[in-house]
Design a protein that fits this description.
mainly alpha; two-stranded antiparallel sheet; 6 helices; elongated
Length: 151
């Protein structure tokens, strides 16, 4: 789990059981579970060798997030302990804004939404291309050739 997530989530822990939270799902009974089991996924933004152009794993995005979290952790801790939003500089303010914006997108639900949107767009593009059979065949031929080289 990230540094900031652990700082934030410990404030939502069940009082008599530190490190545990109640997880809720619609139409299901709540579940007492560890923070790590509901708020963390290792290597979520490490791209596999097949997904990168050079055929190697890439964890650059994870490093960027780790750096941002490392910078914002003391700010968040200070806000929690003082119960006051005491921002020392425009850099701190910017980092906090960036951190909270990333919280919105750094989760599996958002990632699935993006995949669904990409599929919808691809289907629309295919329908448009399919109206011109020759153009469609050429596009498929080029894509097949490109995929064959990648594999």
């Amino acid at each position: 789990m990230s540094l900031c997530s652990s700082v934030l989530f410990k404030n939502f822990s069940v009082p008599e059981k530190s490190g545990y939270v109640y997880a809720y799902q619609r139409n299901k009974r709540h579940l007492l579970t560890t923070v790590n089991s509901v708020a963390a996924k290792n290597d979520l933004y490490v791209f596999s060798a097949k997904a990168t152009l050079d055929g190697r794993e890439n964890d650059e995005l994870e490093k960027v997030f780790a750096e941002l979290e490392g910078f914002t952790k003391p700010i968040i801790e200070r806000v929690i302990t003082t119960s006051h939003l005491d921002i020392k500089s425009s850099r701190e303010f910017g980092a906090l804004c960036e951190f909270f914006a990333f919280l919105h997108t750094r989760n599996l639900a958002y990632r699935q939404e993006q995949k669904n949107l990409a599929m919808i767009i691809h289907k629309m593009q295919l329908k448009i291309m399919a109206k011109d059979p020759e153009s469609f065949r050429e596009t498929v031929r080029k894509a097949t050739k490109k995929l064959t080289r990648m594999i």
